[in-house]
Amino acid sequence: MNDFLSFSSFNNKLKQEFELSSTDTENFNMIYQSNVEFRNILNSYLKNVAQFLAQVSIYFDLDEVIFGGGISYLSPIFLKKIEEYFYQELSNTPFKTKIKPTQLKNSARLVGVLKLLQANKL
Q: Coiled-coil region(s) at which residues (predicted)?
């Protein structure tokens, strides 16, 4: 599952198949608009991420999900797609979990570990 949802693995796949990196925002957006295969692959990946987050939010009955990591460097257009897919997953359930991207981007895990260490005085 780690490789399946890992944005690093997904980005490497894009580099191999399309000679494109997610950090090349301008070309990334342009190819998304013009290449159906690329658009389908990206939408499928974003939907899988959203489905996973929705399932976790249901299982743990979360009030809010904040997602981050490498995926948070994508254009806001694609982050909105994750939110849309997430809410579609929850639409036929009683759950009203909110979702948003972290403002900490890829540093979120470091801040989380620091807060955990501080809370436990480790």
A: none
pLDDT of residue 117: 74
Q: Which residue has the higher pLDDT, 107 or 84?
A: 84
Q: Residue 37 corresponds to which amino acid?
A: E
CATH 3.40.50.300 fits 2-120, yes or no: no
pLDDT of residue 116: 65
